[in-house]
Design brief:
Strand 9 (about 235-240) and strand 10 form a beta hairpin. With about 375 residues, the chain is an alpha+beta fold. Among the domains are: about 115-250 and about 285-370, Phosphatase 2c, domain 1 (4-Layer Sandwich); about 250-285, no CATH class. It is elongated, with a radius of gyration of 36 Å. The strands form four sheets. It has a six-stranded antiparallel sheet. Strands 5, 6, 7, 8, 13 and 14 form a six-stranded antiparallel sheet that branches. Helix 3 runs antiparallel to helix 4. Helix content is about 25%, strand content about 25%.
Length: about 375
């Protein structure tokens, strides 16, 4: 058997060498190309004894052929062939430079890696942690000592989506627009000024022609009264004698009244994987921005007024990254465990949410009401 295999190998090598020698002796094609074209033992099947090669430059090109060179080998004893012009290499595809940040007027050097923020101000503290997204889409606003009055303040927590452009703009301008509107109204029209501040912020942002949107919850403390406004699913919770009182109502598509409003205005609401979404995309029904959905995703906030009393202890304002995993009463209990209502209580709430599987951006702000009543 070994002798047979050895003899077979020698015959194969001799055959290959003969074919190579024959191919190299024919100049029209490279010896490799000729070797591949020639087939041993073939006989002519027609009176024609030449190989015909068509290309787009050849007048004989049949109609309907694709835009590349075509070789029709009719077979011959002489194996004649004509060398055609090689195909042109396609033009180089130039890709634009990738920019993972979706920003408005710059990203303020937002980091792409994991990021945590801690803020401890007068009468408030905050902890924020970036989730799985490339950029942080949560934000906040805090304005104290309004008009020189230490008992007058504005706070907001903002949760962006579709990029950080909207959240950056709202964080910078919502409070300013509300305070500006307050200058032009009387004491009885505070709610109207807050409403106007939200609508103006939305209109101004949309005029920039930049994508993305943002939910927001804000509180305005003035003359012993709390004015609470919200869009979307950011939430405000009051601790009163250790009991949690939710002061906002999420603008979720789980609400029948919100679905009915959208349906009546020609929108489409569907449930995907257990989550209600407008036009199959956004899971909140009110927000600032979202120009492509603006016909249905309105920026009209819900506003309530709440008189403060000595038994009002603190507020917890947070994005849905907290409330998806932590109940209102549990959050109040965690803050009550920290006598100073410090940033440590905010950090602990963030850690609890993350330990339960939260992968969204999360921002928690605690406001001490003792000095603001």
């Amino acid at each position: 058997m070994e002798d047979f295999l050895w003899g077979f190998s020698i015959v194969s090598i001799v055959y290959v060498l003969r074919r190579l020698r024959k191919a190299m002796s024919k100049p029209p094609l490279s010896w490799v190309g000729q070797f591949l074209i020639d087939q041993p033992g073939e006989k002519a099947t027609s009176a024609s004894s030449e190989s015909v090669i068509f290309s787009r430059e050849n007048d004989q090109l049949p109609k309907g052929l694709p835009n590349f060179d075509v070789l029709i080998n009719q077979g011959s004893n002489d194996d004649k062939a004509t060398l055609i012009k090689s195909r042109k290499r396609p033009a180089r595809l130039v890709l634009p430079e990738t920019r993972p940040e979706l920003d408005f007027g710059g990203m303020n050097n937002r980091e792409l890696e994991s990021r945590e923020i801690e803020v401890e101000g007068r009468d408030f503290c905050l902890a924020s942690k970036k989730g799985r997204r490339d950029v942080m889409e949560d934000g906040y606003s805090a304005i104290v000592d309004i008009s020189g009055n230490p008992k007058q303040a504005f706070f907001a927590v903002i949760d962006g989506h579709g990029g950080c452009a909207a959240v950056d703009y709202v964080s910078e301008n919502l409070g300013k627009n509300i305070l500006k509107a307050l200058e032009n109204v009387g004491e009885e029209d505070v709610n109207e000024a807050i409403r106007g501040g939200y609508l103006v912020t939305d209109s101004e942002f949309l005029s920039k022609g930049v994508g993305s949107g943002a939910c927001a919850a804000s509180v305005f403390l003035r003359n012993g009264e709390l004015n609470v406004a919200n869009l979307g699913d950011c939430r405000v919770v009051l601790s009163r004698k250790g009991v949690a009182h939710t002061l906002t109502n999420d603008h979720s598509l789980r609400r029948e009244d919100e679905r009915l409003r959208i349906d009546n205005s020609g929108g489409f609401v569907c449930c995907r994987n257990g989550v209600w979404r407008i036009q199959g995309s956004l899971a909140v029904s009110r927000a600032i921005g979202d120009q492509h959905l603006k016909e249905w995703v309105i920026s009209e906030p819900d506003i309530i007024n709440f008189p403060l009393s000595s038994d009002c202890e603190f507020l917890i304002m947070a994005s849905d990254g907290l409330w998806d995993k932590v109940s209102e009463q549990e959050a109040v209990d965690v803050v009550l465990g920290d006598d100073k209502n410090s940033v440590e209580s905010c950090k602990k709430l963030v850690e609890i949410s993350c330990s339960r599987g939260n992968m969204d951006d999360i921002t928690v702000m605690v406001i001490n009401l003792r000095n603001l009543i």
